[in-house]
Every structure is written in structure tokens, then in C-alpha cells.
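Hi R.,

As promised on Friday, here is the backbone we talked about, encoded as C-alpha cells. Could you run it through your design pipeline when you get a chance and send me back a sequence?
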């Protein structure tokens, strides 16, 4: 049984390793993708301190549709190629944005957000969803965060 809390919040690589282990344990064998996204959104909230929003957007046709998340209400639909989330979905590449106000075409769902990290969940060469994490702190996310969430998406690619 997992405690679903990081053992040492100050150790970022360990925190992401434990997040991945918890996500693997809680989603293994569960076929419902929405349930898995909901549980993982809660895990992200507990394992990544300093967020004001964390969760999923799901690929539906040529746009992203809001999925399970923790935080304030959010934009419901985002076209591929628009904003940080749409760019990640269209390119299939993680978007680490130190200042969202400097990102061309940024979509402001929460005016308090200052930095953002969006990682696509890929299957068969296509983004089936994105994990979106926002922080009210500028330049909050770094390469360790990107690597940690990319490891998480590798686990989830066949589970959501």
C-alpha cells in the first residue's frame, strides 16, 4: 500500500520516482482512463508542491477537452496549436514555459498562473492527452520536472 505522499519533498528526482511508482500502482489493471486520470491528477497535486492547477486535457478530434484536474475551473476546449497545451498536443513535445505571459498565444484560464509545464501523453505517435501543470511562481518548473512528468506519461500512455 502506498501512502501517496512523497517521502522527501525536497528531493525532486526521488519525488518524481515515487510519483511514478504510485501512479503505476494505482492505475495498473484499471481499464477506465478517466478514473486513472482522476487519480493521477490527485497524485500530481500531492507530489508537486507549488501548483495552482494540475491535471489533464484529452485529445478529442482536433482539439483538447478538459479532463480530470485539481485547481480552479479551467478552459474547456483548446484547439491544437493554440496556447501552451495546444502546442504540446500538436508538436508532441513538452512545453516548459518560465513566463506564460511571454508565450505567444498563451490562453489565460487562471490569471494567477505565471509558469507552466505541459507534457503530451503519446500513443502511436499521436498525443492522446496532455498533462498540464501551472504555478503562480515565475520560472517554477525545470528540466527535472519535465523529465519526471515525461516518465509519468510513459506509464500512462496505455492506461488512459
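Update: got your reply. Pasting your designed sequence below so it's all in one thread:
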Amino acid at each position: 500500500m502506498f501512502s501517496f505522499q512523497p517521502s522527501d519533498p525536497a528531493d525532486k528526482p526521488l519525488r518524481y520516482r515515487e510519483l511514478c511508482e504510485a501512479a503505476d500502482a494505482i492505475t495498473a489493471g484499471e481499464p477506465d482512463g478517466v478514473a486513472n486520470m482522476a487519480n493521477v491528477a490527485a497524485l500530481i497535486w500531492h507530489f508537486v508542491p507549488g501548483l495552482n492547477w494540475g491535471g489533464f486535457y484529452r485529445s478529442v478530434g482536433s482539439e483538447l477537452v478538459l479532463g480530470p484536474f485539481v485547481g480552479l475551473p479551467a478552459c474547456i476546449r483548446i484547439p491544437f496549436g493554440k496556447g501552451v497545451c495546444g502546442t504540446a498536443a500538436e508538436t508532441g513535445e513538452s512545453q516548459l514555459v518560465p513566463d506564460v505571459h511571454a508565450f505567444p498565444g498563451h490562453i489565460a484560464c487562471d490569471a494567477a498562473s505565471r509558469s507552466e509545464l505541459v507534457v503530451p501523453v503519446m500513443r502511436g505517435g499521436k498525443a492522446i492527452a496532455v498533462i498540464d501543470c501551472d504555478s503562480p511562481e515565475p520560472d517554477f518548473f525545470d528540466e527535472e520536472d519535465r523529465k519526471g512528468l515525461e516518465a509519468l506519461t510513459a506509464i500512462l500512455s496505455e492506461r488512459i
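One thing I noticed while checking it: Strands lie at 53-60, 63-71, 77-79, 95-97, 115-123, 126-135.

Thanks again,
M.
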